[in-house]
C-alpha cells in the first residue's frame, strides 16, 4: 500500500447481483422481532403519531439520553439549547437538572432517574403535526390556488372594476403589508428556530416562519402583477409608504421592536398573541378584506385570506398549544402567567398605538369599510378571547 | 414564467426587506469575523411560489416509490449486512439535517446581508424536510425490515452509545460557537460542499447494490436541494474574503473543519460503504477511489484551490494527509475494526467478513489481508457464543492481539493510526489525539485567542468526550442494561457480531457478567509520569490492525 493512486477500475460493465434474502418483517420470530415502535418516547395520546415519530428527540437533551453532554459550547459555556434562552419555565427544569455524569457514573438515563419527559417542555406537540409532507402539501396548495385566482382575474379583466381610490389604496397600503410579514418571518420566527428547547417547538416555529415569508412573497408577486395589469399602478408606492407614510410608522416601529427581542418565547408570544390579532387581523381582515368587495375587488381578499388562514388556523393554533401548556404548568403556571402579563402590559399598548396610527386608512377607500372603532373593538374582543384561553388577563391594557 | 418576468419577480422579492430605523434585530450569536455591509446578491433566486410545488412534486415521487417498494416486497432482497448499518446511519443523519436548519439564524446575527438571509430561510425549511423525510425512512425500515431492534431505539442509543459522539459532531459543529466557524465554514463550505457527496451519492449507490432502492430515492431527493445550500455558503465566503483580517480565521476554520469532517465522515461512511456491503464486484469503486474523485479532485482541486487567488492559503497538508490516512494508513479499515471490536456496546448487528470480502479488500487495498485478515477471522470464529467471551474481552485477556485504543479528544474517533498519536496535558488533563491537527484543534483553535489575537466568540470543546469514562470499570452486563440495548425479552442483546437470528446463537446479558471494562483515558490519568510515557511510547509503536507494540516488533 505504498502507491499513491488507487487501482483503476477495469472498464467492463457489471451490475450488482440481487439475491433473495427474505429479510422482511415477519419472516422469522426471535427476541425483539415484534418491537416495531420508537420506544424512546412517550406519545401524547394513546397511539404514537406519524408526526411524533419523525419529530421527537431528533434534537437530543442531556436530561434524557445525551449521556456525554453537548460536544461544543459557546464562548460563555452555554451549549445545545439552553433553557435559559427564555425566562418562561416548564416543570422539572429546576429539579430534574441534567444528571451529573463523571468517571464511572454510567449514562444516568434509566427510567428511575430521568424519565421521559424530563421536563414539561417535552410535552409540547404541534397540533398541526407539521413535518415534511404537510409543509409542502399545504404551501404548494396555497400558491397554486392563489396563482390560479390571480390568473383568472387577469383573464377576466377583474382589475378593471376597481375604482381609482382603491387602486391607490392597494398599491400603497394593502401592498405595504408584505414588509411586516417578511421581516417578522425572518427575524422573529426563522430566528427563533435555533433557540427553543425541543425539536417540537423549533419545527413548529420554523414552519410559521415560512408561512410568513411565503405570504410576503405572495403579496409582492400580486403587486407585480397589478403593476403590469393596471394602467398607472405604482409598483414602488408600498415601499415609500412603509418607510415614510405616518400611518405606517407605528406598525414599522412595533415590528422592528419585535425583531429586537432576544427571548425566543417572548418574540413568538408577542408576535402571535398580541401583534397578530391587534394589528395583523385588524389590517388584513377588518380593513382590506372588508373594504375590497365594495370597491369592486374580489381578488385581493383571496390573496389576503391565505395569509389570514395561515395565522388563524395554523400558526395561532400551535402558539395556543405551546403557551397554554406553560400557563397550566403544574409547577410554574403562576411564574409564567406573571411574565406573560408583563409582556402584555408592554406590548398591548405598543400594538394599540400602532393600530391607531393606521386609523386614517379607514377613510381612504371610496366604499368605506366598517368604522375604525368597530373594527378595533372586534379585534380587541378576539384578542381578549385568546388571552382568556391562556388564562391571562387582557383587560387593563386594552383600556376597557 | 419567461426569463424576463423571472428576473422581474426576483427583483420584486428583494424589495421586501428594509433597513430598520427604530430597532434592529437582536444579535444573539457572535463572530470574530468582520463584515462590512455589502451587496452579495442572493445566489438562489428561489421564489416560494415555485419552490413549494417543486418540493411537493419531489415528495410525491419519493412516497410513490416507497409504496411501490413495499408492494414489490423489497425487503425480500435487501442485504441484512447493509440494513444493520442503517441503524447507525439513520440515527446520525436526521440530526445534522435539523442542526443545519437551526444554524441559519447564526448567520442572520452576523452576516449583514438581507438578500442572503432569504436563501438561508429556504435552506432552513429544506433541512426540516430532510430531517423528517429521513426519520420517516427509518420508521419505514423499522416497520418492514426483519429486525426492528436498534431502529426502534435509535434516538436513545445514538445519544448514548459508544460511537454516537463521532457522528454527533457533524451537526453540533453547525450550531454552536463562532457563528461563521459553525454555520458557514464547517456546515456549508466543508460539510455540504465536500462531504455531502459521499453521504448522498455514494451511500445511495451502495444501498441500491444491496437491494435497497428507498435510500437512493430519499437521498437523491435530499441531495437535489444541496446545490442551493452550497451557493449560500459560497456567497458568504466571498463576503468574508473582502476583509483581509478574516484570512487568518478562515485558514484556521478551513483547517479544523476539513480535518474534522474527514475524521468523522470518512470513519462512518467509509465503514458503511466498505464493510456494510455485499457487493464485491471488482469494478465497483472503493471508498478510497470515490474519495479521490469527489473530495480530492472535485472539491480540493476545483473548489478550494481556486480560493487562493483571494490570498487565502487552503489546508493543503490536511487534504494530503487525509488522503494518506485513507490510502496508506488504512483509516477506514482501522475504524471498521474498532466498531466491530465494540459490537456489544452498539445497537446494530455487524456481519463478519467472508473469503469473498477478503478477496475484494486485497484487490482494492493490496496488503489488506496481512494487516486485518487474521483479526476478522477471529471475529468470525468468536461470533456466536460458545463458552468464550466477546472479541474485545478476549483481546483484553491477551487471547487476541488487539490493544483497545485511546480516543482522540477532539474528533472522538480513536487514535487508530497508532504512530500518529499525540498525547499532551491540556486543561489539566492528559489527553490523546489521533493526529497533529486534532491536537492543534483542541489546544490552539478552540480558544479565546488565536495566534496572539483575541477570539472571544470562538466556541469550546465540551462534554464527557471519552465515552468509556462514564463506564470506567463497570461490568459489561451492567453497561448494556444501562444503555438500553437489550431486546424485549429482557436479556438478548440488540447488537450481535453476526446476522443469525436464532435465539440460541444470540448473545445475552448473561454472557457478559463479570467482565469489567476500564476507560483508557481514566487509566492514563492515573499513571505516574514515567508509566504514562512508557505506555504511550509503546502505544505509538503498535498497529496496524491494533497489534500491540511487542507483536508489531516481532
Ligand atoms: Fe440537508
Ligand atoms: Fe482526531
Automatic annotation (TrEMBL), chain A:
Bias-annotated ranges (Polar residues): 1-14
Lineage of the species this protein comes from: Bacteria, Bacillati, Actinomycetota, Actinomycetes, Pseudonocardiales
Highest taxon of source: Bacteria
SUPFAM superfamilies noted in UniProt: Ferritin-like (SSF47240)
Single GO molecular function: monooxygenase activity
Protein name (Swiss-Prot/TrEMBL): propane 2-monooxygenase
Substrates-to-products reaction catalysed: propane + NADH + O2 + H(+) = propan-2-ol + NAD(+) + H2O
Its EC number(s): 1.14.13.227
Alphabetic keyword roster: Monooxygenase, Oxidoreductase
Keyword Ribonucleoprotein attributed: no
Organism whose genome encodes this protein: Haloechinothrix alba
Region (Disordered): 1-27
Automatic annotation (TrEMBL), chain B:
EC number, UniProt record: 1.14.13.227
Catalytic activity: propane + NADH + O2 + H(+) = propan-2-ol + NAD(+) + H2O
Broadest EC class assigned to this enzyme: oxidoreductase
Organism: Haloechinothrix alba
UniProt key word Ribonucleoprotein: no
Alphabetized InterPro entries for the sequence: Ferritin-like_SF, Phenol_Hydrox, RNR-like
Pfam families, per database record: Phenol_Hydrox (PF02332)
Higher taxonomy: Bacteria, Bacillati, Actinomycetota, Actinomycetes, Pseudonocardiales
Protein name: propane 2-monooxygenase
Gene Ontology MF terms in the entry: monooxygenase activity
The entry's keywords: Monooxygenase, Oxidoreductase
